[in-house]
Description:
Blueprint: E1 11-18, E2 26-35, E3 45-51, H1 55-63, H2 66-76, E4 87-93, E5 98-104, H3 118-134, H4 139-142, H5 155-174, H6 179-190, H7 192-200, E6 205-207, E7 216-217, E8 228-229, E9 236-238, H8 241-249, H9 262-274, H10 282-306, H11 309-317, H12 323-337, H13 340-345
Antiparallel strand pairs: 1-2, 2-3, 3-5, 4-5, 6-9, 7-8
Helix pairs in contact: 3-8, 3-9, 5-6, 5-10, 6-12, 8-10, 10-12, 11-12
Amino acid sequence: MLAPHLAGYAVIGCQTKPHAVPGQTADIVELWLHYDRAQCPLPVRMIAKLGATDQTTRDLARTFRLYERETAFYGSVTGDDLPIARCFHADFDPASYDAVLLLEHLAPSYCPSFNISPGQVRLAVGEAARLHARFWNDPFVQEHPGLIQMTDPEYWPNSVKATTAAIPKIKALLGDACQESIAVAEAWAANFDAIMRYLRSRPFTLQHADFHPKQLFFPDADGQGRFAIIDFQFSIAGSGAWDIARLLHMSPSTESSPSCQADLFAHYLAVLADCGVRDYGWDDFAADFKLGLMMTQLINFVAVDQTDISVLQRECDDFGLDWREVWLLRGERMIRELNVPGFLRAL
C-alpha cells in the first residue's frame, strides 16, 4: 500500500490500536509504523479508516455509497495547500464492499467538538472560503465520481423521503418547537422540482456538506498542528454557503441569530474575494445561506430520526449542552429569522 511513497525505504513493523473515538460509519485504527531507517519521509503515525465490521453499519454505508465516494475523493483531491489530511492509500472493492484509507494522523491538532470557540469558528469560516475558492465553478467537481451532484436522480428524492419520514419523531420529541423547520421540510417536498432547478443554477464548488465542529481539527494551545477537515463521505458539487450554514448551526459558542453573524458572513466573502472570487456578493450569499439552513436542519431531522437519541444526548452532556438546542432549536431560530419557508415557497 505504501510502496509508492516509501522512496526506497521499507516498513519493518507496525503496531495498531482501535481509535479512542469509534467511527460512526467505519472502523478507525491508529497505526505506529517502524521503518528501516529514521530518515524515511513518511510519518510514523497514521490513521487507517476501514470498512465497518458491523454489518448494519456496512449495509448503511452501501445504501448511501459512502465508501466508494470517499475513496474516490481521497484518490484524486490532493494538495499540501488544502485543509485535508494527506492520503497515502485509498482502495475500494465493490464486490465485498471493503474499503481502506491510510491517512495522515493530524496530532497534535485536535478536534474541539461542540466545545468549539468563537475564534475557532472564525478560523474555520476563513479556511472554508479558501477551500471553496480553490474549486469555484470548476468543472472538475461536476465530473468527480466522489461528489454528489445536483443532477443525481436518486440522492435528492431520497433526501426528501427521509426528511418527510422524520417529521413524526421530531413532533413527538419537541412538540411545536420546530414548526418552522417542519414547514421547511414540507416546502422541500411540495416545491421539489422548482427548488432543484434553482439549486442547479447556483455557483458551485467543492462542498464538504457536513461541515460541523466534530469534523474539524485545529492547532493545539501551543499553536502546533494545523487546521484540517475530515470525513468526505457526503461531499457535494454545490454551494459553499451551505458549509457556513452548517458550521454556524452546530457551533454553540456563537450567536444563533443570523443578524449577529454578519461579521462572519463578511469574513467569508472577503476571503473568497482575496482568493479571486469577486462575482459573488451579499445577495448571492444570503440566498445560498437560506438553502444551507434548510439542508443542515433536514440533515439533523434524519440524524435524530435514525440515531439513538441517547448518543446525541451523551455527546452534548459532556459539554453541558442540551442536545435539542444543538441539533434542532438553534436551526429553528435561524430558519424563523430568515423566513426560509417563505423563501422556498417563492422559488
